[in-house]
Structure formats: structure tokens, C-alpha cells
Amino acid sequence: MSYQIFTEATSDLPAKFAEQLQVNILPMGFTMEEKEYFYIPGRSDMPIETFFEKMRAGVPVITAQVNAYTFIEAFEPVLKSGKDILYIGLSSKLSGTVQSGFSAAEELRAKYPERKIVVIDSCCASLGEGLLVYYAARKQDLSLEELAKWVEDNKLRFVHWFTVDDLVYLKRGGRISGATAAIATILNIKPVMHVDDEGYLVAVEKVQGRKKSLRALFERMEKTVDTKATDTVFIGHCAAPADAEYVASLVREKYPDMMVHIDDIGTSIGAHSGPGTIALFFIGSER
Predict the structure, then answer these.
(1) Does residue 125 have a pLDDT over 60?
(2) Which of 7, 6, 11, 8 is nearest to 234 (CA)?
(3) Which residue, 196, 211, 18, is CA-closest to 8?
(4) Integer CA distances (angstroms), 45 to 39, 51, 151, in order
(5) Any idea which fold 157-283 has?
(6) Which residues pair with 261 in a beta bridge?
(7) CA–CA separation, 91 and 242 (whole Å)
């Protein structure tokens, strides 16, 4: 191809798809117990199971965005080889990573004026971002300009629905107050959240009980899914495979022609949502 697609590890794009579709994934860093680690789906410095075990044990985690130097280091060899670049990044409302990508691109354009570097704020996160990259990478018969336009035109159709099992992690991240978390825990209230058109993670609904919250994800999908456009659905989880399988069973029963892929939510998103997070991603008529 005349261009190379990049994303970062917050996309949680499964390693097998990244390899098949030749997508480059930049690592994301995190710190636990004063030690720095790097995460890429399928090959993290720390096994993802260990990461969530430590979180459950109360070990704090600090996440880090990708800096401009890392982008330059990754992009420059591709540009030198004569290829252009399309980078699809994590929502700018959740991280400064994509801004680092813009900065790196500006610096490299001055050095390689004959090359094209397109940076896109996906307004997506986790496997929602990964699903967007997955669909885009299957269209590499398009020119760079055509594919970039497709991503911009369609990115807000990639729908994210999340629920968490324990609000303590959202409290630690400052997304909800301690009082809200305490009351919700006592009443067994589970939030149903999504990523909105601006790329923010927002709470939409509160339901009582874990099973109801899982079913609510599927019910939201039923309302807006574009069955003609969606041939693949991603389901992500943070150390909760049985609950992910339950949501998958609902999708498979209603939409047997769709491929349903279950995978881990990685360290960058999982650090804020916590163990027990379940998320459902698909193409819809709206978010």
C-alpha cells in the first residue's frame, strides 16, 4: 500500500486483526507500584489478568498518553520508506494523545513535505476505536484521501455502550462523587454509559442489578444498530469473560449473521472503568 495505518493501544484492537490488516499499534504506558509498564493488545509488559487483580487489590494505577517523540519515532521510518500515514487516535476529550499525534505530524511535514500525514480524532475509545480502525483497515483499496474521508464521515456511527460493576474506580478517577458511589453501591445501582458525539464518556441510564445492566447494553443496540452496515460486533471486558459471553449470546441470538468478537479492554481504559466493565460496540444510525 502507499500508506500505513496507525492507532494506539487504547483502541484495544485485537492483535490478530492488527496483524491481518497490517495496522501499527503504538504502546500506552502505565505505572503501578512505582514501576513503568507498556501495554499493546496481546503483548503487554504485565499480563492483563495481573493488572486487574492488582486493581481489585487496591493498587493505584497512573496512565500516560503517547508523547510526540514516540509518534515521530514510529512515523519517520514509514515516511522515509516512501509511504504516507493515516493515524486514527483516541478521543481528544479523553486524552491528549491525539494532540501529540497532530504535533508530531506538523513537525514531520516540514521535514518530509512530499509525504502526506493525516491525523484523525476518532471521538472513540477502547474497542469502539478499535472497531472503527478494523472497518477502515478493510478498505485499504481506497486512496489515503478517500479512506480518511470515510473515517471522518462514519466515525460518529460507531456506537459505544458501557457498564461497570463497581463505581469505586469511576470515583477514583473523579468521574463521580464519593457519595454517589456509596449510594449506588448500597442500592446495587449500575450505570449505563456511552461515548457521545463529542467523544466524552457520559452516563445515560441507571438500572438496578448487574444482569439488567448487561441486558440494557443489548437493548440499546436493538434501538439503533444498522444491520446492513454491521457485519462485526466487538464486546470488551475487564476481567469479566462470563458477563461478556452473556451479552454476546444476546447479540448472536438476535443477529446470527454478525461476527461477535470478545476481547480484553486494556490498561488505559480499564484503569479508569475498573474490573467488571463490559462494553458493546457496533455501527448504528446514531450514538
Answers:
(1) yes
(2) 11
(3) 18
(4) 6, 10, 31
(5) Hypothetical Protein Tm841; Chain: A;domain 3 (3.30.1180)
(6) 234
(7) 28
The closest alpha carbon to 87, from 131, 30, 136, belongs to 136
Residues of each domain in the chain carrying CATH 3.30.1180.10: 157-283
Cα 130 to the center of its chain, rounded Å? 6
The per-residue pLDDT for 174 is 59
**Residue range(s) in the chain whose domain bears CATH number 3.40.50.10170:** 3-156
Q: Over the stretch 168-190, which tens digit does the pLDDT of each residue have? A: 776 666 555 665 666 667 678 89
Q: Is the pLDDT of residue 270 over 80?
A: yes
The CATH class of 3-156 is alpha beta
Element (H, E) at 157: none
CA 30 from chain centre, in angstroms, equals: 16
pTM score, whole prediction: 0.95
